[in-house]
Specification:
- The protein is an alpha+beta fold.
- It has helices spanning 5-19, 58-78, 124-137, 143-153, 157-166, and strands at residues 32-39, 44-51, 100-104, 114-120.
- The protein contains five helices and four strands, in the order αββαββααα.
- Strands 2-1-4-3 form a four-stranded antiparallel beta sheet, sandwiched between helices.
- β1 and β2 (44-51) form a beta hairpin.
- It starts with a helix and ends with a helix.
Length: 168
């Protein structure tokens, strides 16, 4: 599956701007980071700088965003039924954060696959809300999938971001 990367960047930037105005966002001063999109697991990856971020943190955000994708994909390979969020394997003390979400795309029962979106640079709930909203924009998310993900992380930011983005 190909993506329009220019459109992806545009929408992700819009979501970062929206995030600054959300009452539930505990770090509205953060205005950028890195987006990683893994297609067909991690067969194709897009790693994109989004918004304006502290350049001294650039490599950290980039690494965290990619680590979340790889960790979630690894967990999905072990358990493709329940692995849907990097929040499930979150360990702050070891630098493993939430913010990546997985969308199953089972097109061939003999070769199931998944797509993953990860963001790093805002805060974990806002990173996850951006990833989920972007996945919905791309047509990947189902209501059931989204509800399971936000229940795992107890994400209060998603509903506000989703409504602000899709009601504009």
């Amino acid at each position: 599956m190909g993506l329009n990367v220019e459109d992806l960047v545009k929408v992700a930037n819009q979501l970062v701007v929206i995030s600054q105005k959300l009452p539930s966002n505990i770090n509205p001063e953060r205005v950028g980071g890195y987006l990683t999109v893994g297609l067909d697991g991690i067969s194709t990856k897009h790693i994109l700088g989004i918004g304006k971020y502290d350049l001294t943190q650039r490599e950290l955000y980039r690494r965290f965003s990619q680590e979340k994708v790889h960790r979630l994909y690894s967990e999905w390979l072990k358990d493709p039924i329940t692995s849907i969020s990097s929040w499930q394997t979150r360990e702050q003390k070891t630098g493993k954060y939430g913010g990546a979400v997985l969308f199953n795309t089972i097109e061939d029962v003999d070769r199931p696959s998944c797509d993953i979106i990860s963001f790093s640079g805002l805060n974990e709930h806002t990173d996850e809300a951006l990833s989920l909203t972007l996945g919905h924009y791309l047509g990947w998310g189902t209501p059931d999938n989204v509800l399971k993900i936000i229940a795992i992380s107890d994400n209060k930011v998603f509903d506000e971001m989703f409504l602000a983005f899709f009601s504009r």
